[in-house]
Design brief:
TIM Barrel, about 15% strand, globular, alpha/beta, 8-stranded parallel β-barrel, about 400 residues
Amino acid sequence: MKTAAIAFLLAACTVGEDAAPPEDNEGADTGDGEITADAITGCTQITTVILYSEATYELRLPEAFAAAPDACTRYYVHMPALANDKTMPRMGADKVHALGPNFHAMAEFSWSAWRQWIDASPGTRDWELAGKAFRTRMAQQGYDLQNGDIWAINEFPTTTRTGELDVWTHERSAVRGLATGDGTLTVKGVVYTAGMGQTLQNVSTLKSNIENWLQQDAWWTDMGKYVRWYAYEVYADPHNNCVVGSNVIADSENVSAYLEHLPRIAHEGGAKTAVAASYLQHHYVPLLNASFNSNVGFGNNLISMADYVKFSRLQIYATHVNAAHVGYPGRRIGFAWAPKDSTLEQEQYLAGVIANSVGRAYPSNKFYNYGKYACSTDGNLDGCGCTVAGDYNQAWDAFGTW
C-alpha cells in the first residue's frame, strides 16, 4: 500500500462512520452440529480479539479488556499447555469465563508434544487421532465447547512454508481431528504459525516458499473447513517502524507491509492462489507484538515504556487502516503478551493502553471513522508517534507484487 493511498483513505475516513468494513460478518451455529462463531444480539459486526500468553494465569491482558469490554467483541484467551505434560489441556477455563460472557478459553494443542505422542507408538497413532484425543481431554478438563471455548495449535512448524516431511498432510489430518472430535460437534479453532522477523533483509527465498505454499489448494481448503482463524506471528520490531524523523502515516504503511505480507501476496497471485486468498481474506489474524522489554523471539523491544506504548497503538492503528483499505484482516486482531523484567504496575498500564486502544478503534457496529482513535481519545495521531533510532526495512514491499 502506497503512502498516497493511505492519505486518501484517511481523508475518506472523515465520513461514513457507521459503515461496515468490507468483509462478511461472523456467523453463528449453522444448524448441522457446527459452531463457527456465535452471533451477538444487537450486533451487526463482531470483533474478534485473540490473546496469547505463555503465562495465562496472570491474565494481565484479558483482565484489561474485561475492565471495559465491548458488547460486540469476543475475546479468546490462550491457555498454555501444562509444563509437565503438554498433551494435557490446562484447567482453568472457568477463570476465563468469569471475566465476562464474551470471554472464551483456548486450549493449547502443542504440536511438538503431540508429535512425540505419535512417535511413541509407531503405526498405531496419527495426527487425526491426536486431534480427537485432545478434544476428549478438553471436555474432561472443563472446556465449554458448546458455548465458545475452542482449541489452538501452538504452533505449525516452519516447514509449513515448504511442505517438507509431508507436513501438509499431517497438518490437514490434525485440524480435521481437532475440529470433528468424536463426530457429535464440530468446533473450529485457531492455528498459530511462526513468521519470519521483520529485520530479515533478503526475503527472496521466503517469498518463493510462500508463493508455492499459497498454491496448495487442498491444504487451504481444509483450513477453511476446520480452522476458524489463522493467526500469523508477525512481531513487528519498533526499530523498523518508529524511525526518528518519520511520521505516523509512513510508519503505518511500513508496519502494514510486514503485518499483512501473507494475505497481500495471496491476493497478488490471482487465480493461482484464489483459494488461499479467499480464506485469508476472512480468517487471517495478525498476532501483534505485546512484548515490552523483551529481546528474544519477539523482535528488539528494549525501548522506553513511553515509546512502546505509542508503538503498541501504532500496530493497532495500522491493522485497522489496512482493513479499511483492502478488507483484511477485517475486525480481527491478536496480541502475543510476553513482557520481560517489568513490574506489575508497568504490565497493568501497558495492558490498559492496548485494551483501550482496541476498544476505541473497533467500537460496536462502527468501523471506518474510528481507526485514528487507536492513537488517542481525540483521534490525534501523535499518540502513535513512536520514535526509535533505526531504519525502515522495505524488503517486505516485495510482497506487494507476485
